[in-house]
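Re: [ENG-882] Designed sequences occasionally contain unexpected residues at chain ends

Forwarding the minimal case from QA. Structure tokens:
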């Protein structure tokens, strides 16, 4: 990339994120030449490019101003055109090295994928485990084979009903966590070499599954507030023989984006027109910070094309590894694949969760958990405002426990990850969420742990490492 293009991209980022509001005056030529150590012609060329992109407008004898059409607050940085190319994925080494580093219990877990275990009702769950194990029939090893424990599927089906979604127990398959559900769905609707649409940035396990099943990925840009770009998806569907989409509709990992009901409906309709299955990853849906559950996309499905995957890993019992999929017209195929791959989910764990859902006060626990995340997000936000430089940017998610932080463009997130670890802090660097290792100046921060002085000073330390982590 040439210098003027780099400069234009940095400023486009600032405009799209809202750091430079519509109507505000752009910096003078002199200011930019000294600030960036570039020539006047580089600045001119950058400004011409921004004008071409519709982001700024010249006013006679007054300079450049942010154009009204640029009111795309929180838009991610422009994706390179290659984002709509399908590509083979190689992400695992990078992900494994980051995950391994974050395992140590003494490390401040900003990079962790889980909330604090202190927030889960582990003792009450243990009672359900003890109680239900004593009642387990010797025949359950056979009876509870896929699709899975019947009382558990009934409880899950009731929860769908509570949202106004009719989801018959027969279409629910219990799995080892949502991750297995997602993988089985992908296997059910693709063959090696097929093209799958995924999010960018997106959950690294989708990239790993694509890598493992020898598929090809088309990355669809995600807006950190409103989710995937439907126009880009529509263009990608025109251009590629996309066999399936794997998207998060609520509190996307890593950005925290949540799609509106209208957008979910439009997404389901777009895919239905082309008969493309949607693998909907909704593991954070129950963790809405506001009062009501945001309907998932499956609520708008009339063709059985949406496979809604979720689990209890983020809300109740991470170690039990109980998830499920409401698999629509693919339920039987998914069930067979489940039998062929891992046979069954743990039978005592299924029974324990069924008992807890029936008698343990799950909704009360969820209300408490959501309240804790809301407060912890407020503390994280305050700390970031206090310590991070002005040209960093984040949006406040309306659910879940991840915050996507865009750092000044000179910061290299991989370097920051190494330096942070040396200081006892884990972070999830942006490149692990992209097939092309993009988002080099982004990090995902976990706020799912009770706030403390230690966490506060970890944010301060992170901020102090930014200069050292320069590219
Ligand atoms: C977006 C997303 N989907 C799925 C999973 C996996 O969920 P489970 O632990 O239930 O397999 C995770 C866990 O990190 C996740 O972040």
């Amino acid at each position: 990339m040439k210098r003027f293009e780099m400069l234009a991209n940095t400023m486009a980022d600032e405009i799209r994120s809202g750091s430079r509001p519509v109507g505000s005056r752009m910096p003078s030529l002199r200011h930019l030449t000294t600030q960036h150590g570039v020539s006047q012609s580089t600045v001119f060329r950058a400004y011409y490019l921004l004008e071409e992109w519709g982001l700024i407008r010249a006013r006679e004898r007054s300079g450049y101003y942010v154009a009204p059409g640029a009111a795309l607050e929180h838009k991610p940085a422009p994706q390179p055109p290659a984002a709509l190319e399908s590509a083979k994925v190689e992400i695992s080494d990078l992900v494994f090295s980051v995950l391994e580093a974050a395992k140590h219990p003494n490390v401040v877990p900003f990079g962790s994928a889980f909330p604090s275990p202190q927030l889960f009702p582990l003792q009450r769950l243990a009672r359900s485990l003890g109680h239900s194990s004593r009642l387990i029939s010797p025949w359950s090893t056979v009876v509870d084979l896929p699709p899975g424990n019947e009382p558990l599927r009934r409880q899950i089906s009731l929860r769908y009903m509570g949202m106004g979604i009719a989801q018959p127990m027969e279409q629910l398959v219990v799995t080892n966590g949502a991750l297995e559900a997602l993988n089985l769905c992908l296997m059910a609707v693709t063959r090696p070499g097929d093209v799958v649409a995924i999010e960018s940035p997106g959950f690294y396990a989708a990239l790993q599954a694509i890598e493992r099943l020898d598929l090809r990925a088309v990355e669809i840009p995600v807006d950190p507030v409103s989710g995937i770009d439907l126009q880009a998806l529509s263009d990608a569907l025109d251009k590629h023989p996309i066999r399936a989409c794997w998207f998060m509709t609520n509190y996307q990992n890593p950005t925290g984006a949540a799609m509106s009901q209208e957008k979910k409906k439009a997404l389901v309709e777009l895919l239905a027109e082309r008969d493309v299955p949607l693998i909907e990853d909704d593991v954070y849906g129950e963790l809405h910070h506001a009062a009501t559950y945001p309907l998932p996309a499956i609520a708008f499905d009339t063709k059985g094309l949406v496979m809604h995957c979720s689990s209890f890993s983020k809300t109740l019992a991470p170690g039990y590894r109980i998830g499920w999929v409401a698999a629509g017209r693919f339920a039987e195929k998914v069930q067979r694949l489940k039998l062929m791959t891992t046979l069954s989910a743990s039978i005592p764990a299924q029974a324990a969760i069924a008992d807890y859902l029936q008698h343990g006060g799950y909704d009360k626990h969820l209300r408490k958990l959501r309240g804790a995340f809301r407060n912890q997000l407020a503390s994280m936000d305050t700390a970031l405002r206090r310590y991070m430089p002005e040209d960093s940017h984040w949006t406040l998610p309306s659910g879940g426990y991840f915050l996507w932080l865009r750092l000044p463009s000179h910061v290299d997130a991989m370097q920051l990850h190494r330096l942070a670890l040396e200081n006892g802090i884990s972070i999830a660097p942006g490149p692990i969420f992209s097939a092309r290792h993009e988002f080099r100046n982004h990090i995902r921060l976990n706020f799912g742990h009770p706030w403390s002085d230690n966490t506060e000073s970890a944010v301060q330390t992170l901020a102090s490492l930014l200069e050292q982590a320069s590219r």
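QA comment: On inspection the terminal residues look reasonable. The longest helix spans residues 362-387. Proposing we downgrade this to a documentation issue.
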